Amino acid sequence: MNMKRHSFRVRIALLSATLTGASLIAFSVVFWWLIYKAYLGRLDAELKNQLLQTNHLQEQPSLQVYETRLTHNFNDTPIIFWLIDREGFTQYRSPNMPNLNLQISNFPQSSDPPPPDFPHTPDRPRPPDFPHTPRRPRRPPHNFESHFPPPPPPPPPQLKIMTRRSSSGLWRVGLVTFPHQKVAIAVSLSGIDQEMASIRNGFLVSIPILLLMIVGASWLLSSSALHPIQRLTKSIQQVTVKGLDQRVPINTTDIEFVELIQVFNQMLERLERSFKQASRFSGDAAHELKTPLAILQGELEQMLQKAETESSTQQALSHLLDEVRRLGGTTRKLLLLSLADAGQMRLYQTPVNLSSVLADQIEDIELLAPHLIIQTEINPELMVSGDQDLLTQVLQNLIGNAIKYNLPEGWIKIQGYKRGKKVIITVSNTSKDIPLKDRDRLFDRFYRGDPARTRQIEGIGLGLSLAREIARAHQGDLTLDPPQLGQTSFTLTLPQAGSKLV
């Protein structure tokens, strides 16, 4: 089962929205991540700076004052401060410190171990320092520096930064280890999270708006790009018998469509030339045959009058005269069709009362087919404006077909009425069901359906085609009604006098 494809403009808009949306989402994710990393990098740099400044915290008069100043340096963001001495005892710890699972083992190890001292453990307090008598410094001996190398520089502090989660959110934790103490500073990431949430919300609002703008721009762009194709389509729609002289202008067309339009214009030129040649040939042939057939018909009529009654000669001449008349009718139909094809069918416009024309035709039916049941529903004064001879020919063709293709002991129903500004004539008759493959070709020229069904019926397959051309020349139409079991119906639609069908 073939699925219905969307139009080119819809597919272009959807493709543009898909590609642009994917690009915008990828760009937003990467940009958001880079901004987040930049915030973290700036925070880490500030953390390192503050951690390195804690080397001389023992000189501070109050560690709580330092914590307050530290909070101010981080723009009043929640701060955790933890100071541990060389022996592992906590000298200061921020109140209400959340559980960040920070332990002494988390701190980086110093590259230079502390000098040996009085043995103690965290569970065993350090004994107080005993007073001692200051000793007078000894004067270094001569060339002391030459005998002993200078003391090594102090080891650099060991830094470590990590992210920890608590019940209050994420924290950025900086750890530093000095030879004489360890310091931990934790900064809450709630401020950064709020900034990133604002950026994310901005992306969530701006991306759909951008996508709508891109879809609209793609729609307008595709419409502009398809404008030459639309003009070409309109020109193709106007390619009828009367519109083969249509051409698509090239001077205002994009260069990409120039070759396509040139090929189309060349095709129209070939079609116009071929159609004119075919129309001229059929018209000329019919016109040239008209005079000889008229002369031949006159000669045969004279010979038929002089022939002996009921002789074989009279029968032969009568048969030849019928064939000549039939050939003359075909010639007239071909001439009318050629004029219709060329748009030169001349109509002698006069008011025509189709009700009276149908009344005359019904009298002929009673004479030609007395075995058929005739049903009529004809409104009076069905007035149209047109050529009475041609319209009479259309009705004769419809009624003649209803007689020829009827069933024994069948019926013919003729309806005539007004509907709005239209006059509608419907001719129905009992008949065999027409195959679907034949219904679409009934109005083709010289088409007579199954030869087994039509070999005994006169005609050459031009009547319906000519009748429809006459109806269309009168701004009307002739159609075959939808199939109904055991009957065939044709409907002739014409504008009322003084109006035109739209």
Automatic annotation (TrEMBL):
<dbReference type="InterPro" id="IPR050428">
    <property type="entry name" value="TCS_sensor_his_kinase"/>
</dbReference>
<feature type="compositionally biased region" description="Pro residues">
    <location>
        <begin position="148"/>
        <end position="158"/>
    </location>
</feature>
<feature type="transmembrane region" description="Helical">
    <location>
        <begin position="12"/>
        <end position="35"/>
    </location>
</feature>
<keyword id="KW-0808">Transferase</keyword>
<dbReference type="GO" id="GO:0000155">
    <property type="term" value="F:phosphorelay sensor kinase activity"/>
</dbReference>
<dbReference type="Pfam" id="PF00512">
    <property type="entry name" value="HisKA"/>
</dbReference>
<dbReference type="InterPro" id="IPR036097">
    <property type="entry name" value="HisK_dim/P_sf"/>
</dbReference>
<feature type="compositionally biased region" description="Basic and acidic residues">
    <location>
        <begin position="120"/>
        <end position="129"/>
    </location>
</feature>
<keyword id="KW-0418">Kinase</keyword>
<dbReference type="InterPro" id="IPR003594">
    <property type="entry name" value="HATPase_dom"/>
</dbReference>
<keyword id="KW-0472">Membrane</keyword>
<keyword id="KW-0902">Two-component regulatory system</keyword>
<dbReference type="GO" id="GO:0005886">
    <property type="term" value="C:plasma membrane"/>
</dbReference>
<feature type="domain" description="HAMP">
    <location>
        <begin position="223"/>
        <end position="276"/>
    </location>
</feature>
<feature type="domain" description="Histidine kinase">
    <location>
        <begin position="284"/>
        <end position="498"/>
    </location>
</feature>
<feature type="region of interest" description="Disordered">
    <location>
        <begin position="100"/>
        <end position="162"/>
    </location>
</feature>
<keyword id="KW-0812">Transmembrane</keyword>
<protein>
    <recommendedName>
        <fullName>histidine kinase</fullName>
        <ecNumber>2.7.13.3</ecNumber>
    </recommendedName>
</protein>
<dbReference type="InterPro" id="IPR036890">
    <property type="entry name" value="HATPase_C_sf"/>
</dbReference>
<keyword id="KW-0597">Phosphoprotein</keyword>
<dbReference type="InterPro" id="IPR005467">
    <property type="entry name" value="His_kinase_dom"/>
</dbReference>
<dbReference type="InterPro" id="IPR003660">
    <property type="entry name" value="HAMP_dom"/>
</dbReference>
<dbReference type="InterPro" id="IPR004358">
    <property type="entry name" value="Sig_transdc_His_kin-like_C"/>
</dbReference>
<feature type="compositionally biased region" description="Polar residues">
    <location>
        <begin position="100"/>
        <end position="110"/>
    </location>
</feature>
<dbReference type="InterPro" id="IPR003661">
    <property type="entry name" value="HisK_dim/P_dom"/>
</dbReference>
<dbReference type="Pfam" id="PF02518">
    <property type="entry name" value="HATPase_c"/>
</dbReference>
<keyword id="KW-1133">Transmembrane helix</keyword>
<dbReference type="Pfam" id="PF00672">
    <property type="entry name" value="HAMP"/>
</dbReference>
